[in-house]
Design goal:
It contains two helices and ten strands; from the N terminus they run H-H-E-E-E-E-E-E-E-E-E-E. It is about 10% helix and about 55% strand. The mean pLDDT is about 85. The chain is mainly β. The strands form two sheets. An eight-stranded antiparallel beta barrel has the order 1-2-3-6-7-8-9-10. The protein starts with 12 loop residues before the first helix and ends with a strand.
Length: about 200
């Protein structure tokens, strides 16, 4: 357990003991740093990427190292399914397609002090594999692995071993599609439920 200078406050023993603060701090210090978290949310593409990929639902798992200090880190594996949207291509009727994505990402950042409400913000980077096929066309599926960099943010309730966060992650995808000059973006808004063990 890391002991930091900012963790200390001056109080009388009687005041701390009567409120149960000492017992709370002992219980909190014994909580493990690693939590397994389940993610459920939505993924959208922007900055030109919405012309190629529609919004999709995502789900997956995440491991996070978040202790009594102010730093956190982790990694996650998320899969998305956008169903069968119709693509709008100039000069053609709507083209039926099938799309999905899978991402593996890592995060590192800073969190607020351990309280029942916690929040954090940091850097995020990962690889997203995008897949697209055309059921009505005689064409091979399109698959591309893309590196992304961006930020990770979250906030929610952390009570004992359990946590429930609302997370917003954003990444700039380091690729260009067709004649687009801008790099597309990928945003994930999700509910994350975790258990520390």
């Amino acid at each position: 357990h890391s002991v930091l200078a900012e963790d200390f406050t001056t109080v009388t023993y009687q005041a701390a003991a009567s409120r149960g603060d000492i017992e709370k701090m002992v219980r909190r210090s014994k909580l493990p740093d690693l939590s397994l978290r389940f993610v459920l949310g939505a993924r959208t593409f922007g900055n030109g990427g919405e012309a190629y990929f529609s919004p999709e639902g995502i789900g997956g798992v995440q491991a996070r190292f978040l202790g009594q200090g102010r730093h956190y880190g982790g990694f996650d594996v998320l899969a998305g399914d956008g169903g069968q949207p119709e693509l709008a291509i100039a000069g053609l009727a709507g083209v039926p397609s099938r799309q999905s994505s899978t991402s593996v990402s890592g995060t590192i950042g800073f969190a607020t002090r351990p309280r029942i409400m916690r929040a954090g913000i940091g850097a995020r980077s990962g690889v997203t594999v995008l897949r697209r096929s055309f059921p009505t066309w005689d064409a091979d599926p399109q698959v591309q692995a893309v590196l992304g960099v961006g930020f990770d943010s979250w906030g929610g309730i952390h009570s004992g071993r359990f946590s429930a966060d609302l997370a917003l992650d954003w990444q700039l995808l380091l690729t260009r599609w067709d004649e687009e000059e801008a790099w597309p973006t990928c945003s994930d808004l999700s509910l994350v439920l975790g258990y520390r063990f």
